[in-house]
Every structure is written in structure tokens, then in C-alpha cells.
Amino acid sequence: MHGGTAGRHPPPGPSKRFPVAAVDAILKDVLGSYLREQPYEAARCRDMAKDIAEIIKARVKDLMIPRYKIVVVTHIGQLNEQSMQIGSRCLWDPASDTFSSYVFKNASLFALANVYAVYFE
Amino acid sequence: MDDFQSGDETSFVVDEVSSIIKEAIESAIGGNAYQHSKVNQWTTSVVEQTLSQLTKLGKPFKYIVTCVIMQKNGAGLHTASSCFWDNSSDGTCTVRWENKTMYCIVSAFGLAI
């Protein structure tokens, strides 16, 4: 009796792709509404960075994308004539994993929010 | 009857990752002064070196590594992260490094497959 082909099935992949555009809109909305008129103040911005990360995570979870793990990273910094570089690299599966990023600036501060979405079987 | 795995093969070990990150920072920018023209290359090199060392650990993880290099100028910076994952297997490690002219902050997130 022959066994069937020994070939593997290709991995099924996510049934629902991660909606990058919807997440971009969330980031723009959250950063804009929380920071629009906010001047840089050390204590307040420290708490805002944490709160904003939590809020973004909650709103991305509300999109109900199944089987994705989410990492949200926010940076809020003072604008002071200094120069900086922020970069990230990921080791993942580009067919199913993705990220979304948004930078907000006003007169005294800048804010960067990154959302990384990683699929797991 | 003890049934649990020791966890070494499949959990995120913070100390191990922390020393990988420190080595990557030292070798890429240790002893250098802030230079705007080099910063892009430095962040790339820190992140790529960290990622390749993490890969060599051979664990079933996906990784996200973020690096911030900022000139010392009296300006403040706050960073926060919030993650939706499996607490028992996933983890994160952040290393803060500085010298006379710049700060470098590297965060690594590991998510079990």
C-alpha cells in the first residue's frame, strides 16, 4: 500500500491579514489627540508615554485580528536642537508579520509610535 | 511527578539577551563621539549585530530589536512599550548605555513561535 506523497503542506498563514492602514489611523488619532497642545514636561510626558502605549494596544486589540501578538513602542522626546536616530530590525516572517509607525511633532516635543504585529500559529 | 520543562530552550532569558545587546553596542559605537553622518550606520550595525547573535541562540523565537541613539544635549526622552503576548514564553530586555556625547537605548523583544 503506497503512502501518500511525503510532501509537506505549505504553512496556512494568517486567515486575516493585519490591517496596517487601520493601525496607521489609530496611531495618528491617538498621538494627535493626546499631544496636540502638550508642551514638553518631564513628569507628564513620562506618564503620557506609558498611557499612550497602553491605549494604542487596547485599540489595536479592539480590531480583533486573530492569532497576532502585538508589541507597541512609544518614544516621546523634547525638541532641543539635538540630533537623534531611531531604528529597528525584525527577525520574522515577512509574509505574515508587519509593523506600523507614526511620528508626531509639535513646537516643543516629538512622539514616535511603532506597532509590530507578529503572527503565531 | 515533575512535568515542567526547565524552560531554557524555549523561554526568553533576559540576562543572556542583555549581554548580547551590550556587546553589540560596545563593538559598534564604544569609544566614538556622536557624529550625525555616522549615526545611521551605527544604529543599523547595533541592531543587525544584536539580531544575528540572537539568531545564533537557535531558539524558536521571532525578534524585534529597536535602537535609539541620541546626542547629549540636555533634552529629555521617554520610551514606553506595551505588549499583547504570552507572558510565560515571551519577554523583553532593554539596555541603556551612554558615553560623554551620546545615549544609546536598545530594546529587544522575543516572541515565541
Automatic annotation (TrEMBL), chain B:
<keyword id="KW-0493">Microtubule</keyword>
<dbReference type="GO" id="GO:0005881">
    <property type="term" value="C:cytoplasmic microtubule"/>
</dbReference>
<dbReference type="GO" id="GO:0043657">
    <property type="term" value="C:host cell"/>
</dbReference>
<dbReference type="GO" id="GO:0005868">
    <property type="term" value="C:cytoplasmic dynein complex"/>
</dbReference>
<keyword id="KW-0206">Cytoskeleton</keyword>
<protein>
    <recommendedName>
        <fullName>Dynein light chain Tctex-type 1</fullName>
    </recommendedName>
</protein>
<keyword id="KW-0963">Cytoplasm</keyword>
<dbReference type="GO" id="GO:0099503">
    <property type="term" value="C:secretory vesicle"/>
</dbReference>
<dbReference type="GO" id="GO:0042802">
    <property type="term" value="F:identical protein binding"/>
</dbReference>
<dbReference type="InterPro" id="IPR038586">
    <property type="entry name" value="Tctex-1-like_sf"/>
</dbReference>
<dbReference type="GO" id="GO:0045505">
    <property type="term" value="F:dynein intermediate chain binding"/>
</dbReference>
<keyword id="KW-0243">Dynein</keyword>
<dbReference type="GO" id="GO:0007018">
    <property type="term" value="P:microtubule-based movement"/>
</dbReference>
<dbReference type="InterPro" id="IPR005334">
    <property type="entry name" value="Tctex-1-like"/>
</dbReference>
<dbReference type="GO" id="GO:0019060">
    <property type="term" value="P:intracellular transport of viral protein in host cell"/>
</dbReference>
<keyword id="KW-0505">Motor protein</keyword>
<comment type="similarity">
    <text>Belongs to the dynein light chain Tctex-type family.</text>
</comment>
<dbReference type="Pfam" id="PF03645">
    <property type="entry name" value="Tctex-1"/>
</dbReference>
